[in-house]
Amino acid sequence: MPTPTTKQETLRSRLPDPSQFVPEVAEIAGAMFKATGNGSIPQTTISLMQLRAGQIVGSTYHTVRQTGDLRKAGEAEERITAVASWRDAPYFTDAERVALELVEAVLTPDPFGERVPDELYAKASAHYDDKACPGEAPASISER
After folding, report:
1. Whole-angstrom Cα distance, residue 140 to residue 93?
2. What is the domain extent for residue 27?
3. Which of 77, 101, 104 is nearest to 91 (CA)?
4. Coil, strand, or helix at residue 118?
5. Helix or strand holding residue 55 (H, E)
6. 25-34, 102-111, 135-144: lowest mean pLDDT where?
7. Which among 69, 41, 67, 70 is positioned nearest to 54, based on CA atoms?
8. For the CA atoms of the chain, what is the radius of gyration?
9. For the domain that residue 118 is a member of, what is the CATH number?
10. Residue 4 domain-assigned?
11. Does any domain span residue 2?
12. Are 70 and 19 in contact (CB under 8 A)?
């Protein structure tokens, strides 16, 4: 095995592999990988979402990994560095913005309401098809 040459190559998660404790995790991870790779959401958008998730939860491992993956994919440095401040940044499409908003909603507790309110679900549904937004729409949306 070659010796790592950069800090990114030596960066590893400190958490143990959960599949050694809960073997079903591997099946779930495989299903999630298949679902996110079904083409309904562009890979760049998924990577931007994963970068934002890493930032929100404070995971250096995921933040560095996704940043590197986005760079390897040829993503503009301005877009990568602006993910943390995406609301003000002019670099993202409306579809990417709603995806980033969804990540924040899911990963940030809201003590006064739902994490993903009907309005946000409706915005996501306007940009992504049922394959990308599975499940039934909230009753207030599906009745419209």
Report:
1. 27
2. 23-142
3. 77
4. helix
5. helix 43-57
6. 135-144
7. 67
8. 17
9. 1.20.1290.10
10. no
11. no
12. no
Q: Is residue 14 a part of any domain in this protein?
A: no
**Cβ distance 62 to 53 under 8 Å?**
yes
What's residue 115's pLDDT? 80
Q: Please enumerate in sequence order all residues whose Cβ is within 8 A of that of 73, keeping only pairs 6 or more positions apart, or say none.
A: 43, 44, 47
6 backbone dihedrals φ, ψ, rounded to 5°: -130, 165
Question: Helix (H, G, I), strand (E, B), or coil: what is residue 43?
Answer: helix
Give the C-alpha separation, 49 to 107, whole Å.
Answer: 11
Which residue, 79, 80, 44, is CA-closest to 64?
80
Tokens of 34: 């298949």
To the question of pTM greater than 0.70 for the whole model, the response is no
> How many structural domains does the chain have?
1
Angle of the 43-57 helix axis to the 60-72 helix axis, nearest 10: 160
What is the tens place of the pLDDT at every residue in 66-80?
999 999 999 999 999
At a CB cut-off of 8 Å and minimum separation 6, what does 40 contact? Answer: 128, 129, 131, 132
**Rounded to whole angstroms, how far apart are CA atoms 128 and 15?**
33
Confirm whether 15 is domain-assigned: no
- Over the stretch 37-58, which tens digit does the pLDDT of each residue have? 656 688 899 999 999 999 998 9
